[in-house]
Amino acid sequence: MSAAPPRVLTVAGSDSGGGAGIQADLKTMLALGVHGMSVLTAVTAQNSVGVQGAWPLPVEAVRAQYRSVVDDIGVQAVKTGMLASAELVRTVADLLAGTGAPVVVDPVGVSKHGDALLAESALDSLRTRLLPVATVATPNLDEVAQLTGLRVESEEQLRPAAEAVLEFGPRWVLIKGGHLAGDAVDLLTDGTEEHWLRAPRHDNRHTHGTGCTLASALAARLALGDAVPEAARAAKTYVTGAIEAGFPLGAGIGPVDHAWRLRNATD
Fold it and tell me: Under 8 Å CB-to-CB from 50, ≥6 apart: which residues?
């Protein structure tokens, strides 16, 4: 009998196409050697071309799932994704505040295809309730604009964007600059330290699930004992490989390959 691996909980929505959301989170956690667990916040009808529908779960169902897992099994890290409504954001923030594990907040606002995944009314709760309990927040540039009103169009603008997000209270922020031209560059900072994470940009349009994957990899590495900068670098390496190996699926944007290391090892 083996000892239990570190346990990581994802609190997020379901992607029926399997490329993002809960499905991507659990695949990432398995690939990185931790035990993934889930609290489902919403069900989406989703595929490679977009989101055809989304249905948030009742607050009572989300709270019951969370307590069921945390009270019995325990967690070494938590990752949040799609929370859909202000009521769910507030509920999850309250649950996280009493858990005592590192929290990675992926402030999911829109899907890869531009479909809204967070109600406009929930933005204030995200700023004032969820971000203050985050160990690391991982917004992309669209989410930075939603949260702060700042439009980032160059690498030089990543620093003021990070400063603006830090004002909401997360200990660290990782601004994902993947939408900028040139190399894929992200900025990790706590307001004192800065870590610039760079990777070559791969010519591959199949990038569905990158944000979920990066945040889950970061949470997995925190559960394994990494400090935040080391966890972020390891997560960046993992998601870069997954993007390079992304594959076509359906008629639109295919997913990143969460099993790329396994496939490379068996080639």
Answer: 111, 113, 114, 115, 252
Domain boundaries, the chain: 7-266
**What is the 3 state secondary structure string of 137-165?**
ECCEHHHHHHHHCCCCCCHHHHHHHHHHH
CA distances from 12 to 80, 87, 117, 252 (A): 6, 14, 11, 23
Catalogue the active-site residues: 176, 207, 209-212
- Supply the DSSP symbol for 127: I
Which residues of the chain, if any, have pLDDT below 70? Answer: 110-117, 267
Which tokens is 258 given? 């969460």
The class (CATH top level) of 7-266 is alpha beta
**What local confidence, expressed as pLDDT, does residue 70 receive?**
98
Q: Which residue has the tokens 């967070």?
A: 118
Q: Which residues, listed in sequence order, are joined to residue 50 by a DSSP beta bridge? A: 47
Write down the pTM of the prediction: 0.96
